[in-house]
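Supplementary Note 2. Why include the ligand at all?

Several targets in our set were suspected to adopt different conformations when bound, so apo predictions alone were not considered sufficient. For every target with a known small-molecule partner we therefore ran a joint prediction. The input for NAP is given below.
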Amino acid sequence: MNRILIVGASGLVGSNLAVALREDQCVYGTYDKHKPNLAGVPLFKVDVLKESALFDVITLVRPNIVYYCAAVRDEQTCSEHPLPALTINAEAAADIALCLRPLGGRLIYFSTSKVYSGQKGNYTEDDPTDPSSSYGEAKRRAEDLLLEFENTFVLRLGTLYGFDCIPDRSLLSKLVKALIARKEMTFIKDETRDFHSLTEVIEASKRLLHAADDKSGLYNCPSPGKTTYYDFARHLAHAINVPTENITAISGEDLRAPYNTPELRGKDTTLNGEKFTRSFGLLTGSLTESLTKIADQLRTGLT
Ligand SMILES: NC(=O)c1ccc[n+]([C@@H]2O[C@H](COP(=O)([O-])OP(=O)(O)OC[C@H]3O[C@@H](n4cnc5c(N)ncnc54)[C@H](OP(=O)(O)O)[C@@H]3O)[C@@H](O)[C@H]2O)c1
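The joint prediction is reproduced in token form.
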């Protein structure tokens, strides 16, 4: 059985990973501001900006696997507070990789398609990065630091959807609520993104857990859901059986919010997941199947 430490077990990815892994692995987690309710997962309060706190936990837990899920994803926070954002998004993860090396441990880190500006789309792992946001810049720095380590796997993700350990916090919960309430909503119709269900992300993360050491490196997570926010919202509405007439389309060019200008938004940030599939096999499921599962979860109250 692996001894797994999830740094950021209170976030969307970390909490879902903890629930998925705790059945057959020895799982520990950290949180900072939000203590999650994760039965069977011992939790430690750790602010990665306070260096010793994280190392105290690593010394205590002695994990052979660390999933690093701590992040500052908000673009405004990253651009207004670049140094702490860089520490949380990149440098603390590299410190862990260094610390795990003599223990023979493995770090699994989640990166983002936002390391690309989105001018091209279908990016492979060999395409040079060119982020156009502070968040993307910090994640690129993380990739550059982490890929120096032979004990590190980096999994790039697009846009995630799924339910969070804290009710109503995830974007999906908010979107479902708004659709059911028939709220007027506007979504971009001319920018393509990879939409990954959390189920796919968890499955991909498990494959990296079991991968041979010599497969370490950078992988794009394959996605069966390459679409726009507008079409995603419409597919979701169909899946949960609510009307779509309150969903209207807008062009990304027309969106003018302080940190969401067309310059920062890429037309197509989709990732090519062939390297992952070649190395670790197909991730099954289509967007429609995943959204049907979400609808089932809502019906049965398992959100
Ligand atoms: N969600 C997406 O659509 C998406 C897309 C692409 C890539 N990713 C990547 O996937 C990973 C997980 O993202 P996520 O969506 O799960 O993020 P999230 O829900 O925003 O969670 C962020 C986590 O980071 C923790 N954290 C923040 N500041 C911290 C600090 N100073 N010290 C310790 N922990 C701190 C938070 O703890 P508290 O809440 O307890 O403060 C929380 O557990 C990240 O690397 C992200 O870049 C996510």
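The first strand starts at residue 3 and ends at 7. DSSP finds ten helices and twelve strands in the chain. Comparable summaries for the other entries are listed in the accompanying table.
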